[in-house]
């Protein structure tokens, strides 16, 4: 194998310029570098890591993922603000709040996500958890096998999420699906958190209805840029098919756990400005 340092040309790279084994070894090394507990402190995944209760992790993991655009410190701080507004116990608040308790959320805002969106999220969580003890069933309903694809799960979730009567039309822009041609970066990231499991202490692996092999790599601007420079994306636009193309390439390196390479691509992009 070539020395990893000699493989890093910071300006012009394509998959054809790399021996496939060299690229795999390089990315595996970067996964090892960034898939570790000290990564958590600066990443929105720190939010669900504050809890031990499964439902708290689901609620705040989902919310932190949905709010994940902009600077990471701002995302983390706004998520912590939501936790404080729910008295430090999201699941208990969702189950037991009174109408008067909702007034405290008036004025909550993160970029284009506002208090109207926040109140709808709370209402959805309340309705859902009255029928199920896990948010997983909103993605993969009871009776379905673990063979569901990420595309099926995301399309089903969006339909379920907006199934309540009189949902705010403005909120639909915050929850995407493959049917909208979106890369679904935030929801794919949330699914990674909930479904992937290893011994590194970052992802939770608390959902079992989908296999890690079926996940799609979150394709944000950092991952997209690095992947294109490594020749892992050819498609010009950034949409659902782009995320599929990237993940298909990553499956060639690890068919059972392709999205572990999210750590490598994101780390290269945001930490190393690759």
Describe the 3D structure.
With 274 residues, the chain is mainly α. It has two domains: 85 residues, no CATH class; 137 residues. 46% of the residues lie in helices and 0% in strands. The protein is built from twelve helices and no strands. The longest helix has 15 residues.
Task: Please indicate the percent range of residues in DSSP E strands (runs of 2 or more).
Answer: under 5%
Tally the helices: what do you get? 12
What's the gyration radius in Å?
Answer: 19 Å
Q: Indicate the structural class.
A: mainly alpha
The general outline is: globular
- The residue ranges in which pLDDT falls below 50 over 5 or more consecutive positions are 1-13
Mean pLDDT: 92
In the residues, how many domains can be counted? 2
**Distance between the first and last residues' Cα:** 21 Å
List the secondary-structure elements in sequence, H or E: HHHHHHHHHHHH
Which range best describes the helical content: under 10%, 10-25%, 25-40%, 40-55%, 55-70% or over 70%? 40-55%
Main pleated sheet: none
Number of strands: 0
């Amino acid at each position: 194998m070539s020395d990893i340092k000699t493989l890093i040309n910071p300006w012009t790279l394509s998959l054809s310029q790399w021996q496939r084994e060299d690229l795999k070894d390089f990315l595996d090394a970067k996964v090892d570098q960034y898939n570790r507990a000290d990564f958590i402190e600066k990443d929105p995944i720190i939010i669900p890591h504050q809890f031990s209760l499964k439902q708290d992790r689901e609620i705040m993991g989902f919310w932190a993922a949905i709010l994940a655009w902009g600077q990471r410190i701002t995302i983390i701080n706004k998520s912590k603000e939501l936790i404080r507004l729910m008295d430090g116990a999201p699941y208990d608040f969702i189950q037991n709040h009174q109408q008067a308790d909702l007034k405290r959320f008036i004025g909550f805002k993160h970029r284009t996500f506002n208090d109207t969106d926040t109140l709808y999220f709370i209402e959805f969580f309340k309705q859902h958890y009255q029928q199920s003890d896990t948010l997983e069933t909103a993605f993969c309903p009871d009776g379905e096998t673990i063979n569901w694809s990420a595309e099926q799960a995301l399309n089903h979730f969006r339909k379920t999420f907006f199934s309540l009567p009189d949902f705010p039309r403005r909120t639909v822009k915050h929850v995407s699906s493959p049917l909208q041609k979106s890369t679904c970066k935030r929801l794919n990231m949330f699914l990674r958190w909930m479904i992937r499991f290893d011994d590194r202490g970052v992802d939770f692996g608390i959902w079992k209805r989908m296999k890690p092999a079926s996940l799609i790599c979150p394709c944000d601007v950092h991952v997209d840029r690095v992947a294109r420079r490594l020749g892992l994306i050819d498609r010009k636009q950034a949409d659902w098919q782009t995320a599929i193309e990237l993940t298909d390439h990553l499956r060639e390196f690890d068919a059972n756990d392709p999205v572990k390479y999210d750590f490598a691509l994101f780390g290269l992009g945001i930490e190393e400005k690759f």
